[in-house]
Amino acid sequence: MLLQVRDISKSYKSRYGKTIRNVLQGAGISVEKGEKIAIAGPSGSGKTTLLNLIGALDFPDRGEIIFKGIPLSEMNKNQLATFRNREIGFIFQFHHLLPQLTLWENIMIPALPGNGSKKEAHDRGRMLLKETGLWEIRHQKPDELSGGECQRVSVVRALINSPSLILADEPTGSLDSNNASMLIDLINGLNDKAGNSMIVVTHSREIASRMDKIYNLTNGKLTGSN
């Protein structure tokens, strides 16, 4: 088992400590190696909150998240930073590329803190850019690229460290239907080739149907799968 989310609860509180809203209430999910899972649900249901908890960008009030047999709650700050950088690849609705950097420089940022070979990182970056059709424009900056190209760059950036788990939060939300379909095909193809697992949050039933399982987040809990 790659990931286990056990009975997670999370609420938002005021600065005085009063609970404003309970977002997750006993949510749980398991993810096997290589498995692709979609999480659907209305806006404000807690989908992004759940991804942030799994990616250790935030922490639950109760419950446990276990990755490769190790609870995240047992990791110190340095271990959590390594976990986020090496094991998790984040893809967001908006690409969040640094405008002053070239495409190549943007995708290499996650590889900078790593302990691996610089040559290996460059070789992987070159391979991914060629597979995504971006190699010839690697020296261009984000404002010289289309929205679809920028989002493809964000996919390469998420994959540069060969993460075990991709967390994609509405990755096609800023794209038209044609580019959205192409991007999902691209992510799925790259994931299948690398053997990564993926959790994708999406409003699109068409995109969700391409995953191995579909869960709905309602009333703070994950229900249903296929």
Describe the structure.
- With 226 residues, this protein is α/β, with parallel strands linked by helices.
- The chain has a single domain (35-56, 83-223), classed as Rossmann fold (3-Layer(aba) Sandwich), CATH 3.40.50.
- It is 33% helix and 27% strand.
- It is built from 7 helices and 10 strands.
- It has helices at residues 47-54, 77-87, 103-108, 118-131, 147-159, 177-194, 205-208, and strands spanning 3-13, 19-31, 36-40, 62-67, 70-71, 88-91, 165-169, 197-201, 213-218, 221-223.
- Strands 6-7-8-3-9-10 form a 6-stranded mixed sheet.
- α6 links the parallel β7 and β8 (197-201).
- α5 packs parallel to α6.
- The longest helix has 18 residues, at 177-194.
- The protein is globular, with a radius of gyration of 18 Å.
- The two termini are 18 Å apart.
- The relative contact order is 0.20.
Count of beta strands: 10
**What number of domains?**
1
The poorly predicted ranges are none
Tell the overall outline: globular
Classified in CATH, the superfamily is: P-loop containing nucleotide triphosphate hydrolases
CA-CA gap between termini = 18 Å
Largest sheet: 6 strands, mixed
Strand order of the largest sheet: 6-7-8-3-9-10
* Average pLDDT score: 89
Helical amount: 25-40%
Order of helices and strands: EEEHEEHEHHHEHEHEE
